[in-house]
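Hi W.,

Here's what went into the run:
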Amino acid sequence: MARVVVVGGGIAGVYFAYRLLQGVNAEVLLVEPKPAHEFVIGIPMAYGGLVKFKDLVFPLSQLKRIKHVWDYAKTLEGRCVRLANSSDVCGDYVVLAPGSYKVGNAEYWSVEGAERLFEKIRTARAIRFIVSEFTPVMGFQEIAYAVKTRFPDKEVSVHLVYVSDDYMFLLEPWKAKAKEIGLEVTDEPPPLSRDELHISVPAVRPHPLSAGLDVRPDTLETQYERVYLIGDSALLRLGLPPIGWGSLWQASIVAQAIASEISKGYIEVTPDEWSSQNDPEAFKRWLTYRMTTGTPLVYLKGLYQIWATRVFASL
Ligand SMILES: Cc1cc2nc3c(=O)[nH]c(=O)nc-3n(C[C@H](O)[C@H](O)[C@H](O)COP(=O)(O)OP(=O)(O)OC[C@H]3O[C@@H](n4cnc5c(N)ncnc54)[C@H](O)[C@@H]3O)c2cc1C
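Here's what came out:
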């Protein structure tokens, strides 16, 4: 049976494993340093009160079809992953999905960090998200929406001091939506005053594991045969914003490619809801559309339920 090593049990890694096992029987080893998978996209729902923070955490001890290797991946040697404990995990395929590296203190990208930040937000009168990074960690806009919706009396504002054009194309259409629900969006923030919380939005970088890897935009294969890079780091390397929809798109393409190679001996990918966007420019246009229409929390709840009952539950 073919062995597939997946590094990173986040949105990309888990969705990849789900799609792969839908198409083929394979031995899947998931290298993940945390004891649980976190449904990061759903964090704004917890801010909005639609789910509890703990509902976004799926213990990896519940996995039935794939094996959790509870460790950090340190380096890649061919199709072998060297772990922090110095042992190697090798496969016929390696799919790297370690997410991105974040630089900054406001930790809203992990469930635990997001809950800590929520406690500070709960007691503040005004919450100001200050964006002054070339490539900010996305998700602050959804959190701002959710906080304003749940606590309409709080002042919630976003200050776009400095952002790269690659992000502004996403944030411009979002501004109108923000205004509709009473979120103020300006450039410079007002001086910090009592009862206010200023949140410096962190910067995002490719994960160190992806250093030196080239990734082909059509197949997501790196320069090493049967070694793929998907998720936030792959998106950053392709000049695309690191957004969960992009991770689903990439996970879907790679899962189909590997499943067909294992079962038929050649690579065949059928475009579907996500993978039909295999042209980076078309993908950017599609993302702009999504940002214009927004993702209402209630839709996210639908995605969360599918994730809990079909995606994670099947693994
Ligand atoms: C608050 C918030 C809201 C968001 N909302 C949306 C949204 O509405 N729509 C949308 O499209 N996107 C959204 N995003 C973005 C989306 O969550 C990310 O793009 C997505 O999680 C990226 O998936 P990933 O698997 O690449 O990374 P992650 O989900 O971050 O997972 C990476 C995994 O790799 C593991 N890992 C790290 N280092 C190693 C290592 N050395 N070895 C092994 N494993 C490792 C980590 O522990 C983690 O489990 C949001 C993000 C945030 C923070």
